[in-house]
Amino acid sequence: MRRLAFTIALLLLVLVARAQEVTDPRLFISDLIEDLVAGQEEEVDVDALTENLMFLWENPINLNQTNYDELAQLPFLTDFQVRSLLDYVDSTGAFLSVYELQLVYGFSPEIITRVLPFVTVSQKAEQQQRGYFSRFRHEAAFRATTLIETPRGYNNEGDGSYYSGSKMAAQVRYSGGNRKHILFGWVAEKDAGEQAFAGDNPYGFDYNAFYIQVKDIGVLKNAVAGDFNAGFGQGLAFWSGLSFGRGSDPMGIRKRQPQLAKHSSANEAQRLRGGGATLAYKNFDVTIFGSYRAIDARIDTNFEARTYSSFPTSGLHRTASEVSTKNQANEAVFGANVGARFKRFNVGVTAVTQSIDGDYSGGTRLYQSVIPSPVEARRIGTNFDVLLGKHLLFGEVATDQNGTVAAVLGGVIKPAPLVDLSVLARSYPADYASRYTAGMGAGSGTSNEEGVMVGLKFLPAKGWAVSALADFYRFPWMTYQASAPTTGHEYLVEATYSRGQHYSISLRYRTKLWYIDQQPEGTMVKAPFPVTKSSARVQFNTSIMRRVSLRTRWELSEYKSEVNSTTYGSVVYQDVTWTAKRMPLSLSARFALFDTDSWDTRIYAYESDVLYSFSVPAYYSQGTRVYLMAKYELFNRVDVWLRWAQTYYSKMEELGSGYDLISGSTRSDVKLLIRVKI
User: Fold this and answer.
1) What CA–CA distances, in Å, run from 588 to 306, 337, 566, 624, 641?
2) I need a surface site. Which of 175, 224, 345, 453 has the fewest CB within 10 A?
3) Handedness of CA 493, 41, 30, 75 (dihedral sign)
4) What are the domain boundaries of the chain?
5) What's the farthest any 2 CA atoms get from each other in the chain?
6) What is the pLDDT, as a whole number, of residue 155?
7) Backbone region of residue 533 per phi and psi (left: phi > 0; alpha: psi in -120 to 50; beta: other values)
8) What is the tens place of the pLDDT at every residue in 259-272?
């Protein structure tokens, strides 16, 4: 009977199989990441996520020898889908083929299409018996980026008031190890304007990160040394590293990452340096970690004792002023987590202490008066998740050294095979010590926010997927934009129709209301007034003979204010991707037209980029944008990417400001990346 069901599933998934025959994984992965970061109106560091997905693409997960933590690395899978897949293996035995995923409860054709490139099926045992040090693989990559135009800051006059380094940005990456047990690597980066092998960096680049990670060796579940990240529960007690806010998937409301993970990105601020380990015995996990590193800080000279006025997180050290903040403070972080894991119920307790050597003068604005000093913080939190049939309930409660309590409670409900519901409630007090936290919400930090988020996703008919999200929130204390407590809401509706590999069309509408200080004409003071930003998008994807992919998008934006006039914006672009048939070459290009009335109506559009890069330029004013990118594989071991991009502003004669000022109406850059695999 099972083999009959499998045969039927195989026939049903022919279109899916063809659709997942992607010769350039970078293009496929960029689409996945765009969905994950759809709600972020700023550039997001996705180096680590891109690297992990590329690693899984080249080293797919064996569905017959996997576990929860391994499957949880696929960010587009919900907890219910992960557990449903594991339950399927437990109840029916090993997979016969990856196309048997059609028989797993909760796996739609859309999800299966996403999963297929990252999984495989093997009846043979992993080669662990050959030794933990078997089958080491190595990879090295070099990336260089430079502006074609020369901003004002590079007209160096030698007085230290301009950028000290060249306008070229460079990055070097190395990683090695085997898939199951040992990983190690190094990342070095020089931002544009920073010096390399000179000045303040006489021995190399401005940023260096290194790591070694060991997994699944006896009772040692995971251990990491060097630069690493840690995250527990829903991010209320402790979370460092990559953290997404609300994306386009209403089911992606639960945070999930390995408790300890290598830091392999170029993000200079969100990392720890030291080490940690997780020991597993039966159903219990114990994790301890510690970090001690220098961080950027601006010293307040108005105090005799060592006092800091701020802690910059940009990682930029280009001018004398920026260099003066580099590694000025020392930060120590120590923490532990104890967790109990069962088939349907997990619970954990996290305790952490953070300290910075010095005092903090604090912000001068009124809204900052309740923010705790970041130089010392202690938090303890309890998190849980429980699977009730086909429904998942999760949450976390945490408190800091002042007794302030933050809490989040959520659930993902599956009332029918083709319907999913989600709900998330959170309460983050304004005086909660929120450094190294990442609770899900509308704001940028885990403080000063209360709200409820509700989501729906269902498949009304073959090929159709409909999703909706509503978020209602309030800021009980003033914010940097509003001088009084305010409320807000955000709605998102999206419908997608796809027909195998042939074509897909999607429609998305998003609207957000919040309050900012404005000064109406004829008044003497500013006060919070509501503003609304809405956008509507139509996107059409199609493939021609499997070698040519086309993407067309048209997006409109509207910005309404009770004080100022309504402004509008629009973007239309065409993407083309071509993969050669008889040579390892792929080409991609975009041509975009944009017209916006103001910066408020800017539209962000994600672009395909070279490996380990992700571009999300803001389209504003009037003009065009174009990019061309080529990838060529040499000798099956060397990959070369070359990318050129240019934005032309038809109504501007100068671009940027300050040291980044460009005289002219175009901004262009060139990227080169070379990767060697051994």
Assistant:
1) 53, 46, 36, 17, 11
2) 345
3) negative
4) 1-132, 218-414
5) 80
6) 82
7) beta
8) 899 998 888 888 99
